Amino acid sequence: MKFVSRNGTLHLRRRVPKRYEDVEPRAYVWMSMHTDLEDVARRKAPAIWDSMLEAWEAKMHGDTGDAEAQFEAARNLAGIRGFRYLPAAAVAKLPREEFLDRLSRVARKDGSIDMREANALLGGVPPPQLTLSRCLALFWDLARDRIDQKSEDQKRRWRNPRIKAINNLIDVVGDIPLSDLTGDHMLDFRSWWMDKIAAEGLTKNSANKDLIHIANVLRTVNKMKRLGLDLPLSDLSFKEGDKKTRPAFS
């Protein structure tokens, strides 16, 4: 490992692996060790190189037609660069110093713009349009810590009410993107349940359990996928009379 001193700071030159040639135009990269002490530079070099590899991996994962993968790659790349991914509108409202810091990171040395860096640091990748059914599919992995100690039968009884609730919502409003879900959709769903209660002699508790499970699934996906959506899931429950015993694993 041979370091070169530039203006009193040690740098390391490494060849870019062929795997990353589609996302890194340079054949070699120079990495600053941010020190003039060789023993310190030797300790820091592996972590700095690993950070370069992580950034290239994030860029590669963003080179896809999969909107979820693009958004995740942009979020990861922003994190590697030391920033939180924000949508473009939020980036524009940042304090001037942070905004200029982000802006300075997207230009290559030849003055051209690295669009992958720009998308990650300036909020150029919109959140993926996750349909309600896709939200349910994602939920199982996002919430796996809640059931990892349960038996298979307990897991089944935990999953089934959530599947039923989301499917009921889809039957009423369609398999729409989560970002398109409005208060009117949820009021339509509530009205559907009101009619169902009257027609089939069901309890309000049945409707409320659906509303609870829907909120649980959609809020979990919104939070864990960092979508930043304002979901219309409050103040929808039916006022119940006699209290029922709460079922296990609800």
From TrEMBL:
Domain of life from the UniProt record: Bacteria
Gene Ontology molecular-function annotations: DNA binding
Name of the protein in question: Core-binding (CB) domain-containing protein
Lineage, highest ranks first: Bacteria, Pseudomonadati, Pseudomonadota, Alphaproteobacteria, Rhodobacterales
